[in-house]
Amino acid sequence: MLYNNIRCEAVEVKTESGVCPGLARTERGEVFVLGARTPDSKGICFQALSAISPMKLALSLTEKMDWEAKDYFDVICPHGIVTYRLSRIEKDKDLNSCTSGKDTQ
Hints:
Elements: E1 6-13, E2 31-34, H1 46-61, E3 73-76, E4 82-88, H2 95-99
């Protein structure tokens, strides 16, 4: 069965500090790996995870389609503050390299 891990990065936080004012305190540049279990590292806002989940599932179970113009999809959290960028992790790419930096694609 095909199953891609998904790189999820907080690429934009619409506050001056770059930190979400919600309980999860998401910071611009945080990266999560979404796989078969809940996110690694610090964790992700549960409400944001609910918004991300449908696109994460689609990306996990499919290869890139011809109609996909970019290698990622942006999803905005329910509060409109944090934009998360979802992208498939290449099967031969080391998962540690996906969480080591705060770079954007």
